Amino acid sequence: MSESTSPLDSHVLNLSVRGMDCGGCERKVVSAVGRIGGVKEVTANAVIGAVAVEFHPTGKQPRQAVKEAITGLGYEILESKHQAVVPWWKTPKGQLVIVTGGLLVAAFLFQLLWPVLGQWPFLFATLVGLAPITQAAWKALKAGTPFTIEMLMTIAAVGALFIDAAAEAAVVVFLFAVGELLEGVAASRARRSISALANLTPSTAYLIEPDGQREVAVNTLQPGQRVMVRPGDRVPCDGLVLKGTSELDESPVNGESVPRLRAEGDDLFAGTINLSGTLEVEVTRSSDNNTIARVIRLVEEAQAAKAPVARFIDRFAYYYMPAVVAAALLMAIIPPLLSLLSWSESVYRALALLLIACPCALVISTPAAIAAGLSSGARQGLLIKGGAVLEQLGKLRTVAFDKTGTLTEGKPTVTDIVSFQEQVDSKALLRLAATLESGSSHPIAKAIVGHAQASGLGLGNLEEGQAQVGKGVSGRVDGKSLALLSPHALDTKVAVSDQLKQSIHALEEDGKSVAVLLEEQQVLGLLAVRDEPREDARAALAALSQLGVQSVMLSGDNTRTARAIGDMLGIEAHGQLMPEDKARYIKELNSHGRGPIGKVGDGINDAPALAAADVGIAMGGGTDVALETADAALLKNRLIGIAQLIALSQATLGNIKVNVAVALGLKAFFLVSTALGFTGMWIAVLADTGATVLVTLNAMRLLGYRFGK
Asked: Which of 137, 274, 381, 548 could staple 635 via S-S, CB 3.0–4.6 A?
C-alpha cells in the first residue's frame, strides 16, 4: 500500500517500506519524518516493513514530503504491502555484496600477480564499496540521525586507510555488506511468514446471477451477493450457507485440524477449504472486512504496539551508542598520551570499537521475537493484541473463567432418566417427555427432544398440548393424559414420596434441573438436564495447572449449580455473581496476591470483568466479539487455547531473554577483546552483523512453535 488512510482517523498515513530491516533503520525513518512540519507522531516497524505517520488534525498534511524523506534515505515505498519478493541478488544490498566481493577477490589477485601495486587494489575496492555506505550515512546525518552504523562504518574504513590498513578496510566493507544482506534476508523471511495469511483468500469467486455464474474478483464481492463454492475450492468470503452440506478444513483460520460439517444456516470463514459438497453461500462481509483481513489487521496493529521490554531496549540503545562512540574516542587519544600504545595501534582499536557500537542486534532482538510470536499465534487461531499483551500473558498466575458457554457447552443436555414404574422404561419415559415438549422452544425442552432424536426414538402423537407458565407442560400422548412439571409444582398435583424427594434433591445438588413426568396422579419418572462441561475443559485446566496457573470460575448461575460444575472440574467456583460482582472479585484476587489475573468470557456480558483483569480473553469461533473485544481471542473456540496462549507467551519471553543475552554478550565480549587488542576490525563487523542475524533467526524459530511439542 503506497498510501492508505486509517478508517478511524483520516490524519494517519500508513506506508509499506522495503529495505527497512533493522532497529537503526527505524530510528533513521522516525528522525527524518519527525522533522517535517505538520507531523505529530511517527512509528516505524522494521519487522513488518511499515511506517505510520500521524498528522496534526488542524494543520497541513505533507504526505508527499513524508514519502520523499523515506525514499531519500534509500528505502523504497511499495505499491502493495504484499508486493512480490525481489530475489536477493536484485536488491541494492545484494548488488553491493556482489560488487564488493568481486573487487575484494580482484584486489587479492592483483596483489598476488603484481605485488608492485601494493595496497592500491585494496584502496580502490574499499572506496568503491564504501561509496553507497557513505551516501547512506550522509543522508541520515542530514535527516538528524548522526549515530548510524553507516556513519561508523565510513569513519572506521576511512580511518583504516589512513593508518595503512587498506586490505583490512576492504575486507571489512565486504563483511559489512554481507551482514546487511543477511539482515535483509532474515527480515524478509519474517515478513513473508507474517503476511502469508493474506494468501489464504482466493483472488476470484463464482458469483451467482439470474442468468448463471460469472467469475469475478473477490475484492468486488459485496454483502448480500451469492457465490458458488465447489469441492476443493477455498471459500472466497465470510458468508452464510444457503444451500448444500459439506465438510470444511478450517485449519487455515483457526488451527482446528478436524474438518467441520457445515450445512444450511451455518457461517463460513474466508480462506477455509471446501472438502466435499457444493455450497451456495451468501456474502456477509466485504473482502476488506472478512475474517482473514481482520486477523491480518489485528496482527499488524499488535506488532506496532511495543511490549514494555521492547520500549526499555529502545531507551537503552539510545544512550548506549553515543556512549560507545565516546569510549572509542577516548581509546584513540588516551593510550598514546600516556605512552601505553602507539597512535596507529590506538586509533586502530578505536576504529574497531566503532564498528561494535551500533546496537542493531539488541534493538531487533525483542520486536523480532514478538512479531514471530504474534504471527505464530494467529496461524494457530490465537489472536493477541500487542506485544504488551503477549508479554503479560506469560506472567498470569490465575485465570478466571465464566461458566456458561466457556467452561460449559452453553446449552443443557439430558444427564439422567429415572423411571419409577416397571412398565415404563427409560426409553419410553424419554419418548413421552419429548413428545410433550415437541412444541416448546424452551432450552430444557430442546434438550429433551434433541436427546430423544439422538437416541433414535420417534415421537408420539401430541393432543391438547399446553404450557403451564412457571410449572411445565401437559397434554395427551397416545391417549394418555400426561404432565411434565418442575419439582416445586408437584405439591398441587400429587403426594411426593420420600424416594422422589431424595432423587430430586440429589440431582439438584449436582446442579441439575429436574422435570417430573406424571400420568394422571401417578409419577412415571423424572429427567434431569444440565449444561455440561466442555469436552476439553478438564484437559485445559490440567494444562494450565502444569504451567503453574490457578483456575477459578465466576458464574452468574446459582451457587449450587456453579459449585457442582466446579466440583466436577476440580476448581474453585463462585455463583450468583452479577457482572459488577465479577469485576469486584477479580480486583479482590489481585489484592490477595493471586495476580496477574486473566479473565475468559464471551466479551460482552463479562465486559466489566474483562476490563478489570490484567488480560481479557474472548471465546468465540471467529465472531466479531472474539476478534474485536478483550486483549486476546480464541478463533478455535477451545479452552485448551488459554494454555496455548500462556505457553506461547512464555516461549516468546524465553526467546527474548536468549536474544538479549546473545546480543549483549557478544557486544560485551568483543568490546573488551577489541579494547585489549585481541580482535580486529573484521571480527568487529562479524560481531555486529552476525549477532543481528543470529537473534533474528532465533526469533523466527517461534514461527514453528506448537503447544506441547
From this structure: 381
pLDDT single digits (tens) 367-412: 778 778 887 887 787 878 777 788 888 889 999 988 777 788 777 8
Q: Which residues are catalytic?
A: 402
DSSP code per residue over 223-268:
TT-EEEE-TTPBP-S-EEEEE--EEEE-HHHH---S-EEE-TT-EE
The answer, as to whether pTM is greater than 0.85, is: no
Q: Under a CB-based contact definition with an 8 Å cutoff, are residues 397 and 596 in contact?
A: yes
pLDDT in tens, 581-615: 777 888 888 888 887 888 887 645 566 677 778 88
Alpha-helical (H) ranges within 570-639 are 579-591, 607-612, 624-628
Q: With contact defined as beta carbons under 8 Å apart, do 401 and 277 qualify?
A: no
Q: Say how many Å lie between the first and final Cα of the chain, rounded.
A: 38
Strand order in the sheet with 480-485: 413-419, 522-530, 513-519, 480-485, 472-477, 462-468
Q: Please tell me the predicted confidence (pLDDT) of residue 281.
A: 94
The mean pLDDT value of the chain amounts to 79
Q: What structural domains and CATH numbers belong to the chain?
A: 202-289 (2.70.150.10), 380-409+534-643 (3.40.50.1000), 413-530 (3.40.1110.10)
CB atoms inside a 10 Å sphere around CB 61: 19
Identify the DSSP state of 407.
Answer: I
Cell triple for residue 387?
Answer: 506485544
Cell of 332: 584513540
Place of cell 505510520: 52
> For 252, how many CA atoms within 13 A lie in the half-sphere containing its CB?
22
Q: What is the pLDDT of residues 226-235, one digit of tens each?
A: 999 998 899 9
DSSP string, 55-108: E-TTS---HHHHHHHHHHTT-EE-S-TTPPPPPGGGSHHHHHHHHHHHHHHHHH
Q: Say if CB 555 and CB 577 are below 8 A apart.
A: yes
Single-letter residue type at 528: A
